[in-house]
Amino acid sequence: MTDTQNLHAAVGVPADTTGKDASKRVPGRKRCLTVDVSGLVVEAVVLPASAHANAAGIALLDGVTAQMDTVEKALVDQGFKKSVVDHGKNLGIDVEIVERNPDQSGFVPQAKRWIVEQTNGILLFYRRLVRDYEH
Protein backbone atom coordinates (compact mmCIF):
# COMPACT_ATOMS: atom_id res chain seq x y z
CA MET A 1 0.00 0.00 0.00
CA THR A 2 1.33 3.40 -0.97
CA ASP A 3 0.21 6.85 0.08
CA THR A 4 1.51 10.42 0.39
CA GLN A 5 1.00 12.98 3.12
CA ASN A 6 1.86 16.68 3.11
CA LEU A 7 3.64 18.14 6.13
CA HIS A 8 4.07 21.78 7.03
CA ALA A 9 7.68 22.89 7.26
CA ALA A 10 9.03 24.75 10.27
CA VAL A 11 10.07 28.38 9.95
CA GLY A 12 13.82 27.75 9.63
CA VAL A 13 13.59 25.11 6.89
CA PRO A 14 15.20 26.35 3.64
CA ALA A 15 12.71 27.23 0.92
CA ASP A 16 14.73 25.44 -1.78
CA THR A 17 13.97 22.05 -0.16
CA THR A 18 10.25 22.68 0.22
CA GLY A 19 7.37 23.48 -2.06
CA LYS A 20 3.68 24.28 -1.94
CA ASP A 21 1.00 21.75 -2.82
CA ALA A 22 -1.39 23.79 -4.95
CA SER A 23 -4.44 21.59 -4.40
CA LYS A 24 -4.11 21.31 -0.61
CA ARG A 25 -2.41 24.69 -0.06
CA VAL A 26 0.24 23.15 2.19
CA PRO A 27 3.72 24.69 2.17
CA GLY A 28 6.32 22.12 3.14
CA ARG A 29 7.30 18.61 2.19
CA LYS A 30 5.53 15.47 1.02
CA ARG A 31 6.11 12.26 3.00
CA CYS A 32 5.54 9.20 0.83
CA LEU A 33 5.23 5.75 2.38
CA THR A 34 4.92 2.18 1.21
CA VAL A 35 3.84 -0.26 3.90
CA ASP A 36 3.30 -4.01 3.99
CA VAL A 37 0.03 -5.71 4.95
CA SER A 38 0.79 -5.35 8.68
CA GLY A 39 1.49 -1.60 8.43
CA LEU A 40 5.28 -1.74 8.74
CA VAL A 41 7.10 0.83 6.62
CA VAL A 42 8.91 -0.78 3.69
CA GLU A 43 10.02 2.36 1.84
CA ALA A 44 9.84 6.10 2.56
CA VAL A 45 10.60 9.05 0.30
CA VAL A 46 10.51 12.75 1.18
CA LEU A 47 9.92 15.25 -1.62
CA PRO A 48 8.92 18.91 -1.84
CA ALA A 49 5.15 19.31 -1.41
CA SER A 50 4.96 20.63 -4.97
CA ALA A 51 6.10 17.27 -6.37
CA HIS A 52 3.36 15.22 -8.02
CA ALA A 53 2.26 11.92 -6.53
CA ASN A 54 3.46 10.14 -9.68
CA ALA A 55 7.08 11.12 -8.96
CA ALA A 56 6.68 9.78 -5.44
CA GLY A 57 5.05 6.56 -6.65
CA ILE A 58 7.81 5.85 -9.15
CA ALA A 59 10.51 6.51 -6.52
CA LEU A 60 8.73 4.26 -4.01
CA LEU A 61 8.35 1.41 -6.51
CA ASP A 62 12.05 1.65 -7.39
CA GLY A 63 12.98 1.55 -3.71
CA VAL A 64 10.74 -1.42 -2.98
CA THR A 65 12.10 -3.47 -5.87
CA ALA A 66 15.67 -2.65 -4.81
CA GLN A 67 14.96 -4.08 -1.35
CA MET A 68 12.89 -7.14 -2.17
CA ASP A 69 11.85 -9.12 -5.22
CA THR A 70 8.73 -10.79 -3.83
CA VAL A 71 6.31 -7.87 -4.24
CA GLU A 72 3.58 -8.74 -6.71
CA LYS A 73 0.87 -6.15 -6.06
CA ALA A 74 0.68 -2.56 -4.84
CA LEU A 75 -2.50 -0.70 -3.87
CA VAL A 76 -2.48 3.06 -4.42
CA ASP A 77 -5.06 5.83 -4.15
CA GLN A 78 -6.53 7.95 -6.93
CA GLY A 79 -3.73 10.53 -6.72
CA PHE A 80 -1.44 8.15 -8.59
CA LYS A 81 -2.00 7.99 -12.33
CA LYS A 82 -1.22 5.75 -15.29
CA SER A 83 2.53 6.45 -15.29
CA VAL A 84 2.88 4.72 -11.90
CA VAL A 85 0.87 1.74 -13.18
CA ASP A 86 3.07 1.52 -16.28
CA HIS A 87 6.26 1.80 -14.23
CA GLY A 88 5.04 -0.94 -11.90
CA LYS A 89 4.28 -3.15 -14.89
CA ASN A 90 7.86 -2.68 -16.11
CA LEU A 91 9.11 -3.76 -12.67
CA GLY A 92 6.78 -6.76 -12.51
CA ILE A 93 4.42 -5.25 -9.92
CA ASP A 94 0.67 -5.10 -10.49
CA VAL A 95 -0.30 -1.58 -9.37
CA GLU A 96 -4.00 -1.26 -8.60
CA ILE A 97 -5.61 2.16 -8.19
CA VAL A 98 -8.27 1.84 -5.49
CA GLU A 99 -11.27 3.88 -6.59
CA ARG A 100 -13.42 5.69 -4.07
CA ASN A 101 -17.17 5.11 -4.08
CA PRO A 102 -18.69 8.40 -5.38
CA ASP A 103 -21.84 7.87 -3.29
CA GLN A 104 -19.90 8.12 0.00
CA SER A 105 -18.94 11.45 1.52
CA GLY A 106 -16.29 12.24 4.12
CA PHE A 107 -13.56 9.86 5.21
CA VAL A 108 -14.48 6.25 4.57
CA PRO A 109 -11.83 3.55 5.09
CA GLN A 110 -11.16 1.71 1.86
CA ALA A 111 -10.51 -2.00 1.80
CA LYS A 112 -6.84 -2.80 2.56
CA ARG A 113 -5.74 0.82 1.94
CA TRP A 114 -6.74 1.80 5.47
CA ILE A 115 -3.51 0.14 6.63
CA VAL A 116 -1.30 2.86 5.14
CA GLU A 117 -3.71 5.53 6.43
CA GLN A 118 -3.38 4.02 9.91
CA THR A 119 0.42 4.13 9.66
CA ASN A 120 0.27 7.81 8.65
CA GLY A 121 -2.00 8.48 11.62
CA ILE A 122 0.30 6.69 14.05
CA LEU A 123 3.26 8.72 12.82
CA LEU A 124 1.35 11.89 13.68
CA PHE A 125 1.26 10.85 17.37
CA TYR A 126 4.91 11.92 17.58
CA ARG A 127 5.58 15.65 17.79
CA ARG A 128 8.76 15.44 15.70
CA LEU A 129 6.82 13.90 12.82
CA VAL A 130 3.84 16.30 12.76
CA ARG A 131 5.88 19.16 11.34
CA ASP A 132 9.04 18.94 9.27
CA TYR A 133 11.81 20.48 11.38
CA GLU A 134 14.78 19.10 9.46
CA HIS A 135 17.14 21.58 7.83
Notes on the structure:
- The strands form two sheets. Strands 1, 2, 3 and 4 form a four-stranded antiparallel β-sheet that branches.
- This protein has 135 residues and is an alpha+beta fold.
- The protein contains four helices and six strands, in the order E-E-E-E-H-E-H-E-H-H.
- The chain has one domain: Nucleotidyltransferase, domain 5, CATH 3.30.420.
- Helices cover 29% and strands 27% of the residues.
- This is Transposase.
- Residues 1-26 are annotated as: Disordered.
Which labels suit this protein?
135 residues; alpha+beta; Nucleotidyltransferase, domain 5; four-stranded antiparallel beta sheet; two-stranded parallel sheet; 27% strand; Transposase; Transposase_11
How is this structure best summarized?
With 135 residues, the chain is an alpha+beta fold.
Structural class: alpha+beta
**Relative helix content:** 25-40%
Q: Tell me the overall shape.
A: globular
Q: Helical segment tally?
A: 4
**Under the CATH scheme, which class?**
Alpha Beta
Secondary-structure element pattern, one letter each? EEEEHEHEHH
Second rung of CATH, namely the architecture: 2-Layer Sandwich
How many domain units?
1
Relative strand content: 25-35%
Gyration radius, to the nearest Å?
15 Å
Total strand segments: 6
Q: Averaged pLDDT, please?
A: 85
- Profile the largest sheet: 4 strands, antiparallel
Low-confidence stretches: none
Terminal Cα span: 29 Å
Organism: Streptomyces virginiae
Pfam families: DDE_Tnp_1 (PF01609)
Protein name: Transposase
InterPro entries: Transposase_11
